[in-house]
């Protein structure tokens, strides 16, 4: 028996796969209901003359006018991607670009549309695996540029076409960033506006280094040129920059109209004609106008508060602005007065304010916004610290899928990973650093502004746990309650009215989400079917959560909320958060009633229930060894009529659970089935990456060395003739002969077939830098070392700032037999005498070894990060580690006890170290051995919790320090003898709850990844 899932259950599951799941996967994106287009955010607008104009936006929305905007009509786009930019070279030829974030992935998918009839009809350019695009410009009908996100195949975020958008190439560059917009200078050079305050120059040769990095917390959002050398760029936090030398240098402009609110305003749009400059953004209650090239500004009032995303002026007097809630504004007097030409709503019915995008109740958003039509927005007031290198979660894409209108993450409140569980005071200090020492005051003012801008009927926020388990959620909850109170008080923050034009607003009700297992006054059944969405709320919300987090996560079937404040008297339980409140359909805060499409509700309910049952059975099967076969066998019947998109989710969940439980063979079969049957589904990319590691990783091969795949013979399963091994890429199995079901983990043939299959169906996977070293190993094992090395050499083009480029340089040096490499290196000291493991570090091996200091990660040395260091040694049998850590002043340490150790102890709330060992330097898979100050341990291999090596640990502590000694037998890590000069990948990280992290090599991430590993060399 292999792992916790019995072989009989494994057989029945495979029978299920080969006979039931033969349809191609449908898109995970639900079909967009028609009413969503009415209030879809518009992201760009252009006019080819005074009468003919096009505006593009979310959900593939395209609006066209031929009378100067007096009437706008919707034009079918053929896509549900979010269109970000539109450009015309003449009255007939135009292009629109956009894309969306893929669920369960960090990658995006782009789209390019073209028209040759003035925008009356649009066609989608050929699929090229482009990432999400945010800006487009053409100089004629064939040559143009686009900017956007980077990807594995297009790493720089700058693209060029010479055939009218049918094909694109990625222009080279030394940066790895994301660009929002760009402008074209008269000489053909490009000015690029990107994230983290990046303004750069580029030409056909590629992207140069940034001419300025304004602020790593603030993204530049738009840029425009006038004449040969004048340019203006705008960004978050009121950023306005002018250049008079074609972007070679920039001057930051501070408009006097926003003396107290400049950092609370995000500018998304700038337009310039000669010396006239118009700037707008969020809140969309005003436009800044300059008649002297940006040296001075005046405020122009707008008849709306919805965010303005783009401005276009046809002349110095005639212009348009577009933005949230489908807003289109028009001026004929240079912006002195603006009129609404169309709008899908005036305000939000529901505004959520949370500290983390991953905990937003997407089921509730799918119900109220997607199904019931309430205009909805969600605000996250924490963003990752810049030094972590992690981007803000794609909240806007996640919420748009749910049917909401606005998703926004504030730039000015940076935070470390919530899993560190920092105290409220510690979080406030990080906010202080970004807000001139006034973090909490800035947050309160900001939230009052957001409430006054969006005028919500209901505000939803974090749960305030009275036990202090989540101090950040508690802090946000209290800030929201104070902001709601002050938003309706005209005497509070009067600058909102005087500078931003935002009047006081009274919220009718405030609710919070109650943690699982606790009762509230409002219950939402997530398993209910929404006819508007044609699926259950949990299915629909699961995709949104997958977009936001990149993970496939199962959530409870019910969601509990409670009322914190309400303007009217309420008693007992409420049917939903809007019970007793008047928000009529078709008015300013709610969509008109949607004409229901014909759906079989009973069939949808059966499919949703089957999916949930299968998830529950999988979870139970990997925990109950005796009942696993019976439960998994029942899945064969339950899978009947399951939609393909739901089937692949079930398979992926099963593969993940099989991997966690140690049944790698079952996990491999599930992943092969996903890759072969659902190659167009985004989860197939994750499966392909797992399979490459399965075949290439020496750690995974060693773990699975004793497993034998075997299925007990039962009734034969018929396989259609067309589903041959060659066509499907999955071995055809005859269940009459158990011998046909035996095969070793090491399978060069299956690996070669997998790579060939990926070349045809998923080339973007083979372009993933994180998989390059796996591919090199697999090709070398097949005798194609030169082809394998090409995967590593291509990483050199990513630039010195890219971690994969640096590791490629290491590997090329090490591959030539040279151990002197420009990398962070720990030297393991050889010692014949074995240490006595008592935690006291008085053995010879520690006296002769060289200590290596950890580097502060989330804490700086100036803030008093407690130092830590390690020594590494070895002999013929063991790898030895000694780690000494200064105790944290913020953690309460237990006295040494006699409590027996347990396998895979929960160390999440302890002061602990994680030891990562990548023996074959594939920079994809590694052992993780964890130990805390008490000597309690846990261990895993790339999510496989069933890896339980026998290793030895002793711990000791005094008043100021704690120490551990560890001896790890080589036989528990590898079946090969250690050779002189061997080099492993390695990292060691200390995690201090309520304080921070420190590591070797340095890392500011809560969980270190292989791209951050250094090298361990055995001398």
Topology:
Elements: H1 7-20, E1 42-47, E2 53-57, E3 62-65, E4 73-74, E5 82-88, E6 94-101, E7 108-115, E8 123-124, E9 133-138, E10 144-148, E11 158-161, E12 169-170, E13 179-184, E14 190-194, E15 198-203, E16 206-213, E17 220-226, E18 230-235, E19 239-243, E20 251-252, E21 266-273, E22 276-282, E23 286-290, E24 298-301, E25 308-313, E26 319-323, E27 327-331, E28 339-342, E29 350-354, H2 362-371, E30 376-380, E31 383-384, H3 395-402, E32 406-409, E33 414-415, H4 424-434, H5 439-454, E34 458-461, H6 471-487, H7 495-500, E35 509-514, E36 522-525, E37 529-530, E38 535-536, H8 537-549, E39 558-566, H9 601-621, H10 628-638, H11 644-661, H12 664-677, H13 682-696, H14 698-703, H15 725-728, H16 748-761, H17 763-766, H18 772-781, H19 785-793, H20 803-815, E40 825-830, H21 844-848, E41 852-853, E42 855-856, E43 868-874, E44 878-886, E45 912-918, E46 927-932, E47 937-941, E48 952-957, E49 961-969, E50 983-992, E51 996-1000, E52 1014-1018
Parallel strand pairs: 29-30, 29-34, 30-32, 31-33, 34-35, 40-43, 40-52
Antiparallel strand pairs: 1-2, 2-3, 3-4, 5-6, 6-7, 7-8, 9-10, 10-11, 11-12, 13-14, 14-15, 15-16, 17-18, 18-19, 19-20, 21-22, 22-23, 23-24, 25-26, 26-27, 27-28, 35-39, 36-39, 37-38, 41-43, 42-51, 43-44, 44-49, 45-46, 45-50, 46-47, 48-49, 50-51, 50-52
Helix pairs in contact: 1-10, 1-12, 2-8, 3-8, 5-6, 9-10, 9-11, 11-12, 12-13, 13-16, 13-18, 18-19
